[in-house]
C-alpha cells in the first residue's frame, strides 16, 4: 500500500497499521454479511453473531487510533505520509461506523422476527441494496489497499445506485402503508433498515474520497463529479 521510505522502521510501521485497517475491514464485512443473512433468513443466531462482534470492532478501532497517534508523535511525518496517516484514521472511523450500522440492522432484524409482521413486506429489494452496499465497501477496501484513484472514482459513481435503491424502496413502503395501515409499524422497521444500508454505502464513498485525498492532496467532499474527474487528470 505504501511506498518505501528512508526509514525502514517507519515503512514497517505504516505497513503494520495498514494491515490492521484491512483486518478491521474484513471484520466489518463479515458483520454486514451476517446481518444480511439474518434479514434474508430471519435468523436470530446470525443477528446475535453480528452484535457479539461489535465490541471487537470498537476495540480494534481504538487500538489503530492509538498506533496512528504514536506514529505521528514519534515520526512527525510530512506531506503525503501525513495525509496517509490522517486518511487511515478517518477510514478506521468510517469502518467502525459501518459496524455500527450492521449492528443496528441485526438488532432491528431481531425485533422484526419477534414481532412476526414483516414477512409479507418487500424485504427482497432491501437485500439487493444490502448486496450493493457490501460490494461497494469491498471495492473501497481493495482500492484503499492499492491507492487506486480510478477505482475510487468508480465507487463514487456507484454510490448513486444505492441511493436510487433506497428511494425506490421508500416509495414502495409508502404504497404498502397507504394500502394497508396495519403494515405501518413493520414498514417503519424496514425503513430503518434501509437507511442503515444506505449509510454503509455512504461510508464506502467516504473511503473512496480519502484515497483521492492521499494521492492527489485534494479534498473532494461536497465536490461535483465533473470537478473530481478534473482533479484526477
From TrEMBL:
Keywords: Cytoplasm, Phosphate transport, Transport. The keyword Isomerase does not apply. SUPFAM superfamilies: PhoU-like. Gene3D superfamilies: Phosphate transport system protein phou homolog 2, domain 2. It is found in: Cytoplasm. Its main location: cytoplasm. The keyword Transcription regulation does not apply. Signal peptide: none annotated. Plays a role in the regulation of phosphate uptake. This is Phosphate-specific transport system accessory protein PhoU. The gene is phoU.
Amino acid at each position: 500500500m505504501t511506498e518505501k521510505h528512508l526509514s525502514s522502521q517507519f515503512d514497517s510501521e505504516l505497513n503494520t497499521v495498514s494491515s490492521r485497517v484491512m483486518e478491521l475491514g474484513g471484520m466489518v464485512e463479515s458483520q454486514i454479511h451476517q446481518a444480511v443473512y439474518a434479514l434474508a433468513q430471519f435468523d436470530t443466531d446470525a443477528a446475535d453473531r453480528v452484535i457479539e462482534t461489535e465490541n471487537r470492532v470498537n476495540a480494534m478501532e481504538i487500538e489503530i487510533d492509538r498506533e496512528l497517534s504514536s506514529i505521528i508523535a514519534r515520526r512527525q511525518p510530512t506531506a503525503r505520509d501525513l495525509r496517509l496517516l490522517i486518511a487511515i484514521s478517518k477510514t478506521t472511523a468510517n469502518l467502525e461506523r459501518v459496524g455500527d450500522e450492521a449492528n443496528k440492522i441485526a438488532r432491528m432484524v431481531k425485533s422484526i422476527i419477534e414481532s412476526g409482521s414483516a414477512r409479507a413486506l418487500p424485504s427482497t429489494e432491501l437485500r439487493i441494496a444490502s448486496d450493493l452496499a457490501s460490494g461497494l465497501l469491498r471495492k473501497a477496501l481493495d482500492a484503499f489497499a492499492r491507492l487506486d484513484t480510478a477505482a475510487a472514482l468508480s465507487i463514487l459513481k456507484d454510490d448513486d445506485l444505492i441511493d436510487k435503491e433506497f428511494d425506490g424502496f421508500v416509495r414502495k413502503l409508502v404504497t404498502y402503508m397507504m394500502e394497508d395501515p396495519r403494515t405501518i409499524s413493520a414498514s417503519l422497521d424496514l425503513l430503518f433498515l434501509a437507511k442503515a444500508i444506505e449509510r454503509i454505502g455512504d461510508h464506502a464513498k467516504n473511503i473512496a474520497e480519502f484515497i483521492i485525498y492521499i494521492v492527489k492532496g485534494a479534498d473532494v467532499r461536497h465536490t461535483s463529479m465533473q470537478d473530481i474527474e478534473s482533479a484526477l487528470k
